[in-house]
Design brief:
Elements (H helix, E strand, L loop, with lengths): L2 H4 L2 E7 L3 H13 L4 E7 L5 H8 L2 E5 L5 H14 L4 E6 L9 H9 L5 E5 L10 H18 L11 E4 H6 L9 H12 L3 E5 L6 H6 L5 H15 L1
Helix pairs in contact: 2-3
Bound molecules: guanosine-5'-triphosphate (GTP) and magnesium ion (MG).
Amino acid sequence: MPSAARAGVFVVIAAYREAPAIASVVRELLAADWPRVVVVDDGSDDATGAEAAAAGAMVLRHVLNRGQGAALQTGIAFALRRGARVIVTFDADGQHRPEDLPGLVAPVLCGEVDVVLGSRFLGHEGAVPWRRRLLLRAARQFQRWTSGLALTDAHNGLRALSERMAARLCLRMDRMAHASELVDQVALSGLPWREVSVHVAYTDYARAKGQRGWAAVRVLRDYVVGRLLG
Ligand SMILES: Nc1nc2c(ncn2[C@@H]2O[C@H](COP(=O)(O)OP(=O)(O)OP(=O)(O)O)[C@@H](O)[C@H]2O)c(=O)[nH]1
Ligand SMILES: [Mg+2]
């Protein structure tokens, strides 16, 4: 992919208390030739923001912790103001791989689709712990029912959005329910989308730091409340 095209691709990372991981995530992206990396430090009380800046990212900061949805909305608005043509959302905890970005970005850059959603169930399912797999299967069914989109994965934070889709996106669900809200808004937009296979690593760090199974109840509650209020 030519450098001029990559310059229009902004990788937006919402990060909360990711000081041990964020620098290597940013460095790997920059080393893989994705020059625009935006980290939204979501009110962390550790060195997340400083580590990200030292590693070479553009860093925005929420004064208070608002949640991943709010942090992504902040990062996406910033990227659009800076002239992004494609926005990639990427996790801060080392679960995603820069090697998957060309496959996500290319269909958006060449105008085939406006949204590419990463799926961990199109080839690399074995890496997903079985409990998480069961939970995600239920989430996927629920998402099919609420959005009408027949996706193979749910709540995968690795995705690419065209400028057009990003400009229409308005995440009001501040915390984790935004991942379902985003799919709903893709469905409502009527813009073309596609899923591609991506790797999601379940490292000891990411598993210790990530969501517990019961957090799904809170996500479901936030989603239902958000839909009722929205
Ligand atoms: N937990 C949490 N994560 C946040 C928040 N704000 C931003 N994030 C970032 O959102 C990303 C995803 O959070 P995780 O808790 O790992 O959630 P997940 O990857 O969907 O779930 P796991 O499969 O359990 O890892 C990470 O990069 C976090 O740093 C927040 O308020 N809480
Ligand atoms: Mg995670």
